[in-house]
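anyone seen this seq b4? input:
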Amino acid sequence: MNLRSVVIVLAVVIPIVSYGDSSRDAERDKAIKKINACLKRNEVSSRECKSLNRNVQTLVEVYKAGDKSVLPLLLRFAYLGDFYGDALLEDPNGFLTAMGELPQENLQAVAPALANGARGAPSRERFEEIRKALTSIPETSPTKATAQFCLKAVETANAVLFVTYFPPDAFTGRGAERRVSGYSSAFYGLGQKPLWPPSSQAQTSYRFTYLGAFTGSKVVTVTAQPDGTARIEAKDAGGGLDTKHYDESRTVGPDRLTEFLRQVNRANFWEMPTELPSLGFDGADWILEGVQDGRYHVVVRWCPDTNRYNKDKAFADAARFMFGLAGHKHHGSC
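predicted toks r here
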């Protein structure tokens, strides 16, 4: 097992900088040397990495004692979310300056962890504290862009704390809270607003969100207009090697809307259970939400063309039809 799942790998090794002959400096330098050796070896089970956690904690204590020079090295360990949040709150400009010097891919790994506590998910109070610190950075500050990037990452990771996408008890199966949190983050990251509760009795909207493990995320929304046409909004966030990013809208005629609603009825969407006993792995979640006649319903299926529930094929056909309305095709069963 290598260290890529534990640390953020940078192209450079942080050098040891001598600050004197004190025991604290010696302890710091020793920890830096061992951490660098471990990162160079990049193998958790190696001799060099045997005391990695202890050495990282040593640098955390050194930082808390006032030596800010160790922060770039500590930013290589994305599991230190609790520490990152404390560092941000204590010294916003100093912390964000160090964050702004990270390569983009490393910044993307660290930023979502900012509000995390010891067990990962932050409390609402902790989230709001971090959120306030990031939004308080002045527009004229050189760290403003980094703060905005971090804010979006923190909000996306914790969207469930301030946006409600689903009615209570929409999901009741095993891991329901985790599913609601994950879907909320995905929807927020895609720039989606809640369809629940319906805005009016007359609203007719359907949204299909495709969350692929390796192929990225896509979303298509069909909204009926008063004149019988339908507004189609589509977005592909990318993620796969062959994906093309797009964020666009178009209008289709009444006949296309009628055919789509016919496919929804053919799938018995409104009678389908929201979730099945289990999902698969390494495929994709297909999430179809509907608002019609004052009702809201959501159905989630994993790779609906490949599982043992034959009725899901009509569900998959309706979802694919939505991509067609948007002028795109979705290939494959997952």
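The beta strands are 205-212, 216-224, 230-239, 246-252, 284-292, 295-302. The chain is about 40% helix and 15% strand. kinda curious what u guys think
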